[in-house]
Amino acid sequence: MTNKNNEIDDKTIRHWGEQALREEAQAILDQIPLMDENFEKAVDMMFHCQGKIIVTGVGKSGHVGAKIAAT
Fold first, then answer.
1. Which of 6, 13, 53, 62 has its CB 3.0 to 4.6 Å from that of 57, i.e. a possible disulfide?
2. Can you state the percent helix, strand and coil of the chain, rounding each to 5?
3. What three-state secondary structure class fits 40?
């Protein structure tokens, strides 16, 4: 809701924030059934890697890749 000064009230902002977090949480939970033996193989390959693992991406994927590399 907006008031006469065209400002958004705190309750509306909080609602939008809660809704965004619920949607993101659900998107993550929806990935659980998709984890199969390929996930286990990928983790095992990375764990046993003797060399380096290169992570690339553009945009948001690039930011995620940079965070992974920093970790």
1. 62
2. 65, 5, 35
3. helix
Residue 65 CB-density burial (10 A; 0-12 exposed, 13-18 middle, 19+ buried): middle
Residue 56 above 80 pLDDT? yes
Cβ 46 vs Cβ 53: under 8 Å: yes
Structure tokens at 10: 């705190």
Distance CA 46, CA 69 (A): 13
Geometric angle at alpha carbon 41, from 60 and 61, rounded to 5°: 5
What is the average pLDDT across 2-19? 83
69 contact partners, CB below 8 Å, separation of at least 6: 55
